[in-house]
Amino acid sequence: MSEISKRDYSILGPEREKAIAKGLVSAEWYKCPVPRKRMKELMVRRNGPALRDTLLWFIFLAVTGYLAYLSWGTWWAIPAFALYGVIYSTSAVSKWHESCHGTPFRTSWMNEALYQLCSFLILIQATNYRWSHVRHHTDTIIVGSDPEIMEPRPPMWSRLIKMIFRFGDIFGTFKSLFRHAFGRLTNTEKELIPPSDFRSLFWEARIFILVYAAIIGLCFYTQSLLPLMFVGLPAFYGFFLMTALNSTQHLGLYEDMLDHRLCVRTFYTNPIIRFLYTNMNYHMEHHMFPMVPYYNLPALHQEIKEDCPAAASSFTAALRETVAALWHARKDPTYVVPKYRIFAENIAQSHSTNHYARVGDPS
């Protein structure tokens, strides 16, 4: 237990070499069987659904933003801006993630335009996330190689609480922007981002700073915080739902296993959350087949669900499962949600996959 608790989760530390030695880096992952013809159908991208959902998002932002504006200066501003912030932040993050994959629209420039817009809204640059996310999908929850592991084992509750409103990320966000604006990179960024994209990263940061400086200037001119309350700050005060949704994706599941069924969680939920979250509740399906557009994930789920652990019955059920796993991991960093441990043991016993012989018995 003490050895596990001291693992280095950075992608430049000793765990990286261990993962390479175990054959876990850039390895072949298990994929649920889907007929080739059906998979080609599921991978078809269409402009219509993504355009409809993006326009609906803008309409909801306009309506809730207007209500928030009317409430400014009263106690009603707290719930009004909380609602606006959730719609702003949750949808911006999920659409930013999807457009990073280039899958929502059939037209490529539409994907890139949405990606850059959402990157600006949530203050996370497009270029560094693009390459960080490539690594996340290539080496999902492989310690020492995946830069997007949300919480190491054992978890630190203070850090998790700070994530609710991105409190731990505020200083780092602006420090990163100014560092990039002056053409500087961390060693981790040099590891992930190819030199050919450095220039794009630097100019993105400069544009972010200039535009947000103009918004701050508008705040001083109007002697009101309202401009930032509508653009920029919602990425922090409205982030609490996104934090909860993010936590259900991988926490409490296996590390260092080449099977998305063991390290990614899917759950069912209502149409409102599915809309805001851009169907990322089907997260295991997304990781296994990342080029399937979000609007086809429910159909993909139906194709492969018999070959996967049962999906959590609701968002609250998935969140309870996640929180319980984090609680157990305080004292036992090897803890895995029992449903997934049993599923892994059944896989090992049935010899239905070949890669366990290389990475070890999941039990």
From TrEMBL:
Chain segments annotated as transmembrane: 55-78, 113-131, 202-221
Location of the Fatty acid desaturase domain: 74-313
Record-listed E.C. numbers: 1.14.19.-
Top EC group: oxidoreductase
UniProt-listed Pfam families: FA_desaturase
Keyword Membrane in annotation: yes
Keywords linked to the UniProt accession: Membrane, Oxidoreductase, Transmembrane, Transmembrane helix
Superkingdom of source: Bacteria
MF (Gene Ontology): oxidoreductase activity
Record's protein name: Fatty acid desaturase
